[in-house]
Amino acid sequence: MLEFLFCSLLTIVPDFLIRRYAQGKRWGRELTLYSIWFELRWGITACLLLTVGIITIVFYYHPSTSNVTSFFRTITILPEAGGRVSEVFVRNNQKVAAGEVLFTLDDVRQLAAVNTSSRRVAEIEAAIAVAEADLLAAAGQVAQAAGAYQVTFDELARKQELAGRNSPAVSKAEIDRLTGELASRRGALEAARAQQTAVEKQIAVLLPAQRASAIAALQQAEVELDKMVIYAGVAGTVEQFALQPGDFVSPVLRPAGILVPSDIRQRRFQAGFDQLAAQVLKVGMIAEISCMTHPFKVFPMVVVEIQDVISAGQFRPTDQLRDVRMAARPGSITAFLEPLYVDQDIDVLPGSACSANAYTDNHALLEEGGLGAGTWMFYHLVDTVGFVHAVLLRARTLLLPIRALVFSGH
């Protein structure tokens, strides 16, 4: 409409002024809608065609969109395990620091597991002390068995020496008895040594392994106990938080609230342009945005990145074939905008609804030269009509409060 009014200033308005004030014709008599149309039909038709052409060039080479915002992340406040709330330390809309306790869950079961694991560790440590005492007893038994074996061995050797001299004081039965007793003593000594080795292995291998397992179980129980205390992962503001002691929260069924990080104010905006702008949008293009949360102001931006896929084409594998006809409406081309100047202050709330214009710039191409007259004139026209789109953006920015507050119907 603004383009049509602009074109009409070149045809209809000058003719009306000449006929009314120069020729003295009066409105309603010599000047009527029919007479004006009849005399200016070619000019009005040309104006209409010119308007359509200008609109096409403006919106193709200088694309615009009303789908611009600055996305920010939120963190869902979830416990790692479900449980009933025992105590709440913060309230809704409260600012919290990283690591601050938000609430705690009932930990009776976890405390019992920690106590059981602690008792098991103490039991293993007591078993180690007892095993050390058993090792001393086993060493004593080995010494006792070794002494008895040595006594029997010496006595047998003496008897055998006397028997070798044919002494009547030694009988063959006595030597046989001592030989059997020596074998028994040797077996007792080996058994005592085996018992000592078993106790040593128990102290060196078995009990430390059992102690390590018990300590691991204790650490696991302590970790489960720590999960009953919910902390703030980052600094931010707690939102939609209405927990009360006795409420049940679950990582699957019921979150506790949302944590909005403090560092959400970023300088990057996401704009969704029509797919017709795919061949026009380029990294480095100058753009402008205006937002509802900051009316009467236009921010200069630059396109820093263009998403190389269109989200409307994504799918997840299922047990049914995807029908293209069932797809949603054509998706948009996502472009990422950042402030044109490094020290520029973008005082726009994250998540604000904004509008954006991107401008094609052929200045470098025109400076290089070597273009035909028609091409040179066309590129000049494209760059010139970008001014029209910039004016339209500022007009919409000025009229935005009126449209939103007066003509919105709310």
> What is the average of the pLDDT values?
83
Number of domains: 4
Total strands: the figure is: 14
Task: Kindly name the structural category.
Answer: alpha+beta
Radius of gyration: 47 Å
CATH topology of the largest domain: Elongation Factor Tu (Ef-tu), domain 3
First-last Cα distance: 25 Å
- Element string (H = helix, E = strand): HHHEEEEEHHEEEEEEEEEHH
Supply the CATH class of the largest domain: Mainly Beta
Structural account:
This protein has 410 residues and is α+β, with helices and mostly antiparallel strands. It folds into four domains: 1-56; 62-71 and 265-313 and 329-403, Elongation Factor Tu (Ef-tu), domain 3; 75-106 and 229-261, RNA polymerase II/Efflux pump adaptor protein, barrel-sandwich hybrid domain (OB fold (Dihydrolipoamide Acetyltransferase, E2P), Beta Barrel), CATH 2.40.50.100; 108-226. It is built from seven helices and 14 strands. It has helices at residues 2-8, 12-22, 33-61, 108-164, 172-226, 363-368, 373-405; strands at residues 64-69, 75-77, 83-88, 95-96, 101-105, 229-231, 236-239, 248-249, 257-261, 269-273, 286-291, 294-306, 333-339, 354-359. The strands form three sheets. A six-stranded antiparallel beta barrel has the order 1-10-13-12-11-14. A hairpin with a 2-residue loop joins strand 11 (286-291) and strand 12. The protein is rod-shaped and about 175 Å long. 16% of the residues are buried. The mean pLDDT is 83.
